[in-house]
Amino acid sequence: MGSWALLWPPLLLTGLLGRPPGAVAQAQYCSVNKSFFEVEENTNVTEPLVDIHVPEGQEVILGSLSTPFAFRIQGNQLFLNVTPDYEENSLLEAQLLCQSGGTLVTQLRVFVSVLDVNDNAPEFPFTTKEIRVEEDTKVNSTVIPETELQAEDKDKDDTLFYTLQEVTAGASDYFSLVGANHPALRLDRTLDFYERPNMVFWLLVRDTAEENVEPSHTATATLVLNVVPADLRPPWFLPCTFSDGHVCIQAQYHGAVPMGHTLPSPLILRPGPIYAEDGDRGINQAIIYSIFSGNVNGTFVIHPDSGNLTMARSVPSATTFLLLVKGQQADLARYSVTQVTVEAVAAAGSPPHFPQSLYRGTVALGAGAGVVVKDVAAPSQPLRIQARDPEFSDLNSAITYRITNHSHFRMEGEVVLTTTTLTQAGAFYAEVEAKNTVTSGAATTVIEIQVSEQEPPSTGGSPSEDKRFSVVDMAALGGVLGALLLLALLGLTVLVHKHYGSRLKCCSGKAPEPQPPGFDNQAFLPDHEANWAPAPSPTRDPKPAEAPPTPAEPAPPGPAPPGSAPEAPAAAQAGGSPAAVRSILTKERRPEGGYKAVWFGEDIGAEADVVVLNTPTLDVDGASDSSSGDEGEGAGPGRGPHDEPHGDDSYI
Predict the structure, then answer these.
(1) Which one of 138, 281, 349, 546 has the largest count of C-beta atoms within 10 Å of its C-beta?
(2) What positions does the domain Cadherin occupy (predicted)?
């Protein structure tokens, strides 16, 4: 022990420095100039890490403490033999042993530190996670803890960032993550099983804060949240007079019974039989019925499961019963109460009657036994056959119904059911008898049942509503369409008379005469056939002021009246001088403003062609005045100064 104790300090110093004391000068020991290196993972290092100085007569080998398969010695150089991976081994060690003749001379160590880089994507421990969430979970509660949603990243120094993305529209209003680095799922809004029974999210994770940073890796998992209905609502007596899915203004029932009689069948009530269902339809607890109060003398009995109300004894006098009926869940957690009003009325024996002589129903071809026949007018509702008793203000529970002449159908209360599978399409007619079991009075009616090849479309929520209408509906529609057609014809007549009345008048007396060849220019039509709106002529005073008498205006050129021969040009007015011409305006604009005028000779016959030689240089006012003057005054003393054509004007 003493000798080893004396040798331990020199050996320790040799291991640490790589050479014994006093060996620097002799260089008889192995050495390296660097013993610690840093290399990024996934880097393929092909160059030698370090050169090993080996004295003559010695050799160097890798010791057993070296990282397996990580290094190799080639010549007197140390090489990295693997591609380093930080996640597998973050520190590599090479033990170098220098020997001489099998004797260890020097021991050296070289370390390689592997640097971590972001080369691994995060991973969730699940692909899809499905959980159940109670409907009455409190807001701000943690629905899924962080430990169940965390992703794993082999890059130990990475910080993960989480994002919750909705797949179900509107789901992000209900749930969110506690934080970007804390993926606990939190409830933000009260759940409603009937509004959103389930919601789906994508949970995304990224190993960088920025999306566009490289390298960056992501992972995605799916979260499915199923809302479990909670017992929040009491039973509802149907039909609800109003319901929004959360609250039901429940029904109250009315009926009537005859005095002095005990009816064997369940009472017929309005708006229907006593029926309640669990307000939490997702739970749908069975309902137990009982009469809470108002059952004087135990007159009525209610079936605890069906809710059918029957009579236990007769009522001797006119009485109104106000029964409070309780519907309680089978688990006794919640209940509701409604009122049933039953009147005991004297029955004098008046027979019942049907308000309709014909009822129409429909059922699908191939329907089996026990299928309800639907109302043609409202295909989503059952066809109800109700007879009235004039002595009863409400439905008479003493009236029973049966089909007398058809084996394919039967009555169950007021509803028609099938008794067999319907294999033939077509219309079936059946007689329904309503009989008062107390007075024995009876009445009959007929039902028409249309067996169709397809089920009639439901009106509830479907965009295609019922397309079959009654005769009254079709008659009303035809009357409206007829009235609209008449109004359209009247309007069309007014428009035709307004726009084409003059042409219809001129053409109604005789066939139109042929026009001269040169009269096809629409700008030279007679005044009463001009295709542009002329300025209105001044209104004449019935008693004009004193003025010199003027000769009558000559008739404008146009078709001769019936039975008269066309006048020769010489007979119209003597002379071919400019004084025997008249002018009209055209629709052609003058460059200096106003409209161009054309001058006509009144002695021109129908055989003459109309030719425009040139245009007058009159302004608009002058042309207008001359036109109106010609029409009102004629060729005479009443002419204006511009009525006479100038020297540079041409006339036809």
Answers:
(1) 281
(2) 71-124, 125-237, 249-354
Task: Tell me, yes or no, whether 258 lies in a domain.
Answer: yes
Beta-sheet pairing, 276-278 with 300-302: unpaired
- Clarify whether residues 368 and 321 are in a common domain: no
Given 205, 228, 251, which residue is the final one in a domain? 228
- pLDDT score, position 317: 93
Q: How far apart are CA 20 and CA 29, in angstroms?
A: 8
Mean per-residue pLDDT, 223-248: 90
Q: Is residue 5 part of a domain?
A: no
Burial (CB count <10 Å: 0-12, 13-18, 19+), residue 481: exposed
Domain count of the fold of the chain = 4
C-alpha–C-alpha distance, residues 64 and 363, integer Å: 91
pTM reported for the whole predicted model: 0.48
Structural domain that includes position 206: 128-228
Question: Burial, 127: exposed, middle or buried (Cβ in 10 Å; 0-12, 13-18, 19+)?
Answer: exposed
**482 CA to centre of own chain:** 36
What are the backbone angles phi and psi of residue 63, rounded to the nearest 5°?
-85, 170
- Is 106 inside any structural domain? yes
Please tell me which residue, 55 or 650, carries the higher pLDDT value.
55
Q: Is residue 370 included in any domain, yes or no?
A: yes
Residue type, 325: V
Q: Dihedral angle at the C-alpha atoms of 13, 19, 20, 22, nearest 10 degrees?
A: -130
Cβ–Cβ < 8 Å for 136, 229: no
Helix (H) / strand (E) element for 105: namely strand 103-115
Q: Can you give the CATH number for the domain in which 139 is found?
A: 2.60.40.60
Residue after which a domain boundary falls, among 87, 115, 143: 115
- What pLDDT, in 10s, does the model give residues 141-160? 999 999 999 999 888 778 89
- Residue 250 in tokens: 């429940």
For the chain, the straight-line distance linking the first and the last C-alpha, in angstroms and rounded, comes to 155
